[in-house]
TrEMBL record:
Active site: 361, 457
Biological processes annotated in GO: GMP biosynthetic process; GTP biosynthetic process
Entries under PANTHER family matching the protein: INOSINE-5'-MONOPHOSPHATE DEHYDROGENASE, INOSINE-5-MONOPHOSPHATE DEHYDROGENASE RELATED
Encoding gene (name): guaB
Organism: Rahnella aquatilis (strain ATCC 33071 / DSM 4594 / JCM 1683 / NBRC 105701 / NCIMB 13365 / CIP 78.65)
Name of the featured protein: Inosine-5'-monophosphate dehydrogenase
Record comment: activity regulation: Mycophenolic acid (MPA) is a non-competitive inhibitor that prevents formation of the closed enzyme conformation by binding to the same site as the amobile flap. In contrast, mizoribine monophosphate (MZP) is a competitive inhibitor that induces the closed conformation. MPA is a potent inhibitor of mammalian IMPDHs but a poor inhibitor of the bacterial enzymes. MZP is a more potent inhibitor of bacterial IMPDH.
Tagged with keyword Transmembrane: yes
Length: 544
């Protein structure tokens, strides 16, 4: 062992950068090395490399890891996979029954996929590459698919003709309408059975409707069993909710009860409607979109940007929080603890983490900016400790094991795009290519998506294709069938992880599971090797 004393103040400041005016003499104990080959400055530099300290010229903050860099450590367990509880908090007020969200992308989430995912226990975010009116209508479609009690049913007046009722049926897709006066007093109901064989369509609905004396009516808050019993006794499929003065308050249909029985794990609000989210931008002109979505009944608003740690996004969050104090708001995307903390201080209910990990995203390559996802999630969770604000891991999820790793890093749930693109419920037509079925999938930073309206997410204002700088690509993914089959496989893998790590709940997995870092050989060993796959597994596709 040797001891080297640096008494030269200039040398200290140059290579160790202590506070100005620090006269301290540094005494460094080094492992044995041939000191006659090195100057004192060179020895000190090598010593810092040996310790893994930050190199002053590169300003490297730290080393960062992603999904393939780590594995979870198995532990003693009394947890069987089928007993694991997959429930988790999206925000303090919204609980998911599975820790999965669908991305607000125009080739992933519209009403059909949002409905299917909510029925499985997750939540979908309607993308914003559409008009304000259409986005609000997509939200309404989800909310009314399983209504429990339809709080604001479409009605007709006693003077409405049967022809007008038929026209309403063609527009709305259903045939039952309560008949109310101008004072909203219930006088009857007109259904498809009432008009099926009527030839004179100019008659008013009062001529053939079921009058109020024969209606099945219930009080607000009536128990489900009581409602079903009344509907069974009268052999009807609709019950009307009224107050003491017989004013119409809502409507209950037997179809909603049947849907609830088929999907007991569905993610619903207090009124029994499926939950849904919607994305908006941070730029000017989004106020009207936010107002329309809130009026449509959106459960959670996503203020979405490629760089959430920017003043425009923070200001949009502050303004929205001031206008809607009780609205659940998610902000993103960020990749650092400082970014997560800034969003929390601005007033978000949850923070979305991920810059550049998605399969169709080129942000890290085009801009050179990003943080590998495991480290980004961990840093955000650490920064938000004690605030009660959950973290969402957005992007980079290829396998069910990645969902488990993201949650073990501290995320409350994951947001996926590519995993759900190509399902039956995702937007777009099925295309045949070289004998196989595909659906299109593109990043919201691709030229096509940006020209349709997502350019403000990337702080670009000119929608002309030759003026845009894309941060994503357009491609195709293999057709995958029904979404519920994908969810079954992914949640099955997550349950198996919880059994292997001894974690009975998502919160246990978030806080108790331990990681090991692995080498390139370790990840190669983890994947299928030394064999030719002859039959694809539903939950393992290389390159997927």
């Amino acid at each position: 062992m040797i001891q080297i004393k640096f008494k030269n103040r200039d040398l200290i400041e140059r290579y160790y950068m202590p506070a100005k005016g620090n006269q301290e003499v540094f005494e460094i104990v080094l492992v044995v090395m041939p000191t006659h080959l090195y100057t004192p400055a060179a020895i000190f530099y090598l010593f810092r490399i040996h310790l893994g300290e930050i190199l002053p010229m590169l300003r490297i903050a730290k080393e960062a890891l992603t999904f393939d860099d780590v594995l979870l450590v198995p532990a003693h367990s009394t947890v069987l996979p089928n007993t694991a509880d997959l429930g988790t908090q999206l925000t303090a007020k919204i609980r998911l029954n599975i820790p999965m969200l669908s991305a607000a992308m125009d080739t992933v989430t519209e009403a059909n996929l949002a409905i299917a995912l909510a029925q499985e226990g997750g939540l979908g975010f309607i993308h914003k590459n559409m008009s304000i009116e259409r986005q609000a209508e997509e939200v309404r479609r989800v909310k009314k698919h399983e209504s429990g009690v339809v709080a604001d049913p479409k009605t007709v007046t006693p003077s409405t003709t049967l022809r007008q009722v038929k026209e309403l049926t063609e527009i709305n897709g259903f045939a039952g309408y309560p008949v109310v006066t101008e004072e909203n007093e219930l006088v009857g109901i007109i259904t498809g059975r009432d008009v099926r064989f009527v030839t004179d369509l100019e008659q008013p609905v009062t001529a053939v409707m079921t009058p109020k004396e024969r209606l099945v009516t219930v009080k607000e808050g009536e128990a489900r069993e009581v409602v079903l019993q009344k509907m069974h006794e009268k052999r009807v499929e609709k019950a009307l909710v009224v107050d003491a003065q017989f004013h119409l308050l809502g409507m209950i249909t037997v179809k909603d009860f049947q849907k609830a029985e088929r999907k007991p794990n569905a993610c619903k609000d207090e009124q029994g409607s499926l939950r849904v989210g919607a994305a908006v931008g941070a730029g000017a002109g989004n106020e009207e979109r936010i107002d329309a979505l809130v009026a449509a009944g959106v459960d959670v608003l996503l203020i979405d940007s490629s760089h959430g740690h920017s003043e425009g996004v923070l200001e949009r969050i502050r303004a929205t929080r001031a206008k809607y104090p009780d609205l659940q708001i998610i902000g993103g995307n960020v990749a650092t603890g400082a970014g997560a903390l800034a969003l929390a201080k601005a007033g978000v209910s949850a923070v979305k983490v991920g810059i550049g990990p998605g399969s169709i995203c080129t942000t890290r390559i085009v801009t050179g900016v990003g943080v590998p996802q495991i480290t980004a999630v961990s840093d955000a969770v650490e920064a938000l400790e004690g605030t009660g604000i959950p973290v969402i891991a957005d992007g980079g999820i290829r396998f069910s094991g990645d969902i488990a790793k993201a949650i073990a890093a501290g995320a409350s749930c994951v947001m996926v795009g590519g995993m759900l693109a190509g399902t039956e419920e995702s937007p777009g037509e099925i295309e045949l290519y070289q004998g196989r079925s595909y659906k299109s999938y593109r990043g919201m930073g691709s030229l096509g998506a940006m020209s349709k309206g997502s350019s403000d997410r990337y702080f670009q204002t000119d929608n002309a294709a030759d003026k845009l700088v894309p941060e994503g690509i357009e491609g195709r993914v293999a057709y995958k069938g029904r979404l519920k089959e994908i969810i079954h496989q992914q949640m099955g893998g997550l349950r198996s992880c919880m059994g292997l790590t001894g974690c009975a709940t998502i919160d246990d997995l978030r806080t108790k599971a331990e990681f090991v870092r692995i080498s390139g050989a370790g990840i190669q060993e983890s994947h299928v090797h030394d064999v030719t796959i002859t039959k694809e597994s539903p939950n393992y596709r290389m390159g997927s």
